[in-house]
Amino acid sequence: MSHSESEIPTFAVVGKINMGKSSVLATLLEIDDDRVVRVSSTPGATTQCQVLPVEFDGREMIRFIDTPGFSNALEAMRSIQDLHGEGTPDLASVERFVQRELDGGQFEDEARLLQPLVDGAGVLYVIDPSKPLRDAFVAEMEILRWTGRPRMALLNEKADHEDHIEEWRIRLGSYFNLVRTFNAHRARFDERKNLLKALLEIDEGHRRRIEETIELIDEEWDQRREESAEILMDFLSKALRYRESAPLDEKEEELEERKERKRKELAKVYYAKIAQMEEKTYEKLLRLYRHQILSVEVGGEHLDGLDLSSEETWQKWGLSRSQLTLAGGVAGGAAGIAVDLGSGGLTHGLGTLIGALGGAGAAFFKGEDLPDLKVGMITGVGNSKRALVMGPPAGENFPWILLDRWLHHFAEVMSHAHGRREEELLQPKDDSGWVRGFSRDRRVRLQRWFSQSAKGGSSAFDAAVFQEFVNALEEAEDA
Questions:
Q1: Is the overall model pTM greater than 0.85, yes or no?
Q2: Phi, psi of 300 (to 5 degrees)
């Protein structure tokens, strides 16, 4: 190992076959690609050592090595003892064993996984505590102890019932510098970061490098959250500004039945376009958080079928009627204040009062208008005299429902560990949404921005609204 390489903290992930080593690495390093880390229920999926660097701006900060599993630890342990002779084997004995067995020997798997340790790597020993502690596991621990390298044991809780976990903790404590629990199928960002922090306790020599890596990971995570907020804010703004139009021929214009048929056709097109916008935001989100096998699918029907006049919908999505009324009233009142200031106070506060009453009334009486769309008529479209124009939905709750659904899917993405390789379609569940838990100030600020966007108001960046979205995403991460 060169001098520059010796500055890079290196840890070999070792253990018996099918203990979840690759799953731990996939979750820890956010690798959702079997071409990079082979995660499989088939024993022995990893047959060669694989170097997995953690890099920032082309600079390698930490190196992990995925290794083949122990296949015959008991016999390998006895072979190392025979090589050493009397007394307790040491690193030199392990090195001689590796040199002898590495290419085509009886214990080639053991030699391959031990090679990084001979070269100086620390040890992350992965155990499934649902398995009983047998002699073969003790043999593995003995061999790893003989290397003298810094060692941490990870209890990878894959099963719901860990009947042997206390027995494992006691035994591991006598062989390893540190014992930690890590669920590769459920670990979130904070748990992954805590595992990296634990490396500081077994590798003091690389403390500054590991601390710098954790700082960079924190910064990158904050950047991703801000990018997510930008994606969300852009989607909501476009959805609220979006209009769909269709020219009317003479018969459609004159015959109410045909005009209604045209309106329904146009409504389907409108909702399908909103759904396409939504799907694109989820695609961006999944790429941002390095998920390749997750997907989110929505169709126009998910909006067209929402009935805000039903009690069920009011209970699950968007703001409650009272919250919507208050947010609309306060936002309307703010608009009235602008009128009062512009009039030099001659209105004596009537602008504020009228604005508040108007906003609250719109929220209360129009809050359940979805799926009805605002329908307008314009002239001079193509060869037609007039055209239907639709969008956005009249219901004040429409943007809140879009936001609620988006936060729900965001939270689902945050809770999906990369070590889980099954394909999954994220869909809204029947539990309540997020926005009802927002503070009053946040609801008012967002309602004002929604109203301005729906009216095609200024598209200038609103830093205060952006920060509200960032804060909401941070709350969803921790849920």
A1: no
A2: -55, -25
